[in-house]
Design brief:
GO terms for molecular function: carboxypeptidase activity; transferase activity. Keywords: Cell shape, Cell wall biogenesis/degradation, Peptidoglycan synthesis, Signal, Transferase. By secondary structure, the chain is α+β, with helices and mostly antiparallel strands. The protein folds into four domains: 14-220, no CATH class; 261-325, no CATH class; 349-399 and 468-588, L,D-transpeptidase catalytic domain-like (Beta Barrel); 407-463, no CATH class. The chain has helices at 14-28, 42-45, 50-62, 73-82, 98-111, 119-129, 138-160, 194-205, 210-220, 228-243, 261-272, 294-306, 317-323, 327-340, 405-418, 422-425, 511-518, 527-536, and strands spanning 351-356, 361-366, 369-379, 388-397, 401-402, 428-432, 439-441, 458-462, 473-477, 485-486, 500-502, 506-508, 540-542, 549-553, 557-559, 565-567. The chain has an eight-stranded mixed β-barrel with strand order 1-2-3-12-10-9-4-14. The chain has a four-stranded antiparallel β-sheet with strand order 5-8-6-7. The chain has a two-stranded antiparallel ribbon with strand order 15-16. The longest helix has 23 residues, at 138-160. It is globular, with a radius of gyration of 30 Å. The model is unreliable at 1-12, 28-48, 171-183 and 580-586 (pLDDT under 50).
Length: 588
Amino acid sequence: MNGNSPGKAKRLTGQHCSTLLLVVSLLLSLPACASISSRDRASSSLPPTSTTLTLWVESSLSTLHPDYKPRHTELLGHLYRQAAFGHFWINEQGHPNAAARLLLNDLQPWLALEDHPRLADYRKLAELLQQSVETSLPRHRQARDLLITDLFFSYQQDLLQRYWTQYDSDQDHGITNAYERWDNWPDEVVKRSLQDVFPRWLQQLQGHQPQDWAMDRIRENQPTSRFYQPWRQAFAELQEMAEAGDWPELNRRLQRGDEGPMVARLAEQLYRLGDLSNQQPYLLSKEGPLIFDQRLELALKTFQKRHNLPQTGVTDQPTRDWLNMQPQERMRRLAHNIRRLHHLPNQLNDRYIMVNLADARLQFVESQQVKLDMKVIIGRDGQRTPIMNQWLTSLVINPLWNVPPSIARERIFPRALNNPEYLASRDYALVQGWHTPSRFVSFEELPDDAFTNDNSTYRIVQKAGNFNQLGRAKFRLSNQQAIYLHDTPYRNLFSSDRRDISAGCVRVEDSERLVEALLASSQTWTPEVLKEMYAQGDERYLQVRPRVAVYLMYWTVWTDTNGRLQWRDDIYHKDGFKQPGQRLALGP
């Protein structure tokens, strides 16, 4: 807000009065704004009355906020002209109306985030939305309404531009929009500007009350996925907990059979968080000893499961860390996940694969029904799997693995130099050139500078077989950064609780089930045909229809099908505004 807080009403000078009289007389002589062609820039498409409208905006604001410099003066003028200079946020008594209350509620997750320069305007906007105009003068109500709308425009511009998604970017920033090369993505997924949508906004204002129009615009830019409303409900519940004050901490290890006041504190916390249904047996006022019994142990195990902890039934240090997390911190973490909903298109595809990187799990969804749920392995810290919206472009059965040049040069080729049998023993083959069909060469045909920085002509591929790093299937995505899903021969890795160990690609737990689910409607690629194809060992490319979208997302907090919050460690450090700047993930 340019560092200026809304001040008290300023006495109108003779110059102010003269200016306002001139502006009003000019405005009364103007026709109402006609509809403006969609997608045109406001500066070139708006009627030639901008100077007069700008003068009206600045003069009106100066009556109550003389030091405030509006950022969207021209747009404000045309919007209020279209609204017959009515109010969007303030009623006739100068109090916030229903649109103001809706906007204030919409801002709540942003207000729970840690400090950020961009959020200062959001906080000021929230303050204004809760204030009544102190004077009864209509021009002061108009000035306050204009100020709120100007800040609202800045807020909407951030959402339209998907400004806040950049703080999840390390290597993924810049490739999240790679899908724009592919057709049929909803328009809402593409970054837009306020000027892009403003002509449509003016048209939508025709015949509507300003308050109703404002409420429609607020809802329009909310995430429309099925996740948003349950997450907002959970956020509201955490807000209520936060208003009651901080929670007392658990400071020692407890297990079944323990007694004392700390048992009551544990029960209170588990009851507060919804893992214990009845707190009465553990109240301090209860007669007799407070015992850590089987019921409390089961409640603690439920809590541990929701936080991806070993279900020991003991308040070890990791469990106490989660139990002692205050409601404000829980709100902040959930708010970052609500923020990350803006990575998704407003309309999810009917068939999609959703990978939650923080949970290292995958779901295949069709017609809003979960068809498959399985574990995945994702990129390690330093080679993170990026947040992306993608199309599944094809399936590859018995895929060849094109070994990344750095791995071929630094790891595999040196071993082959020491052991000529190494390549054949691991199903590797040498290939000259990057064209197709491939030209396989023998070890003896290689020049002395092969696999050096001076000669990138040669590459190594791994044929289908037990050693192939891609396993029996590869799921190609619509990006050029070599990020894809694939099988793996190392099944034992899925038994680990921490599965952020790959070089960037996503390894799936059961590729054959996923392939069958994706091709379930095909009359050609039946399970019997696929089984024979696997056995033959030849590389085959298959198309998947209807098309399947793939969303690689990062949720550290979400609500499950029962409405319960699930929590995961922030392994990629995205629950904040820091940008580590990791290098691009490459390889399986």
